[in-house]
Amino acid sequence: GRNYVGVSSTGDIYACHRLVGTEDHRLGSVRGGELRREQYVSNAAVANDVCRGCFGKHVCSGGCYHDNLGATGSAHNPSAEMCGRIRRLVELAAQIAVRLSDDDRRFLRDEGMVTLPACALDIFD
After folding, report:
1. At what angle do helices 80-99 and 65-72 cross, to 10 degrees?
2. Residue 40's pLDDT is what?
3. Nearest residue to 64 via CA among 56, 52, 75, 50
4. I want to staple 27 with a disulfide (CB 3.0 to 4.6 A). Which of 13, 53, 55, 75 is the partner?
């Protein structure tokens, strides 16, 4: 609904291709009219109470709307299981990052797996 949409074969627009056919998540139609996307405009990482205090919020941004819908009944509320997985992923990534040698970092840069940030302080870019 913000940067990505799915369009059905009948021209209906949805927040995601996985939500096509779910009337509650229909945003509008390619045939014109207003798009109802208010519920998808805000970033879940800052708008959602569950996500706001999580250290992994910028990795998942509140999770997949379709997965959330199946797990919690709301496209905007992630499941505790998914949150636990994302937090563990961030923890493991941090543990790996601090153990990389200069040779490891050079290899990753040379192979194009990571790029240098514009500023050394921009570690999350």
Report:
1. 130
2. 73
3. 75
4. 13
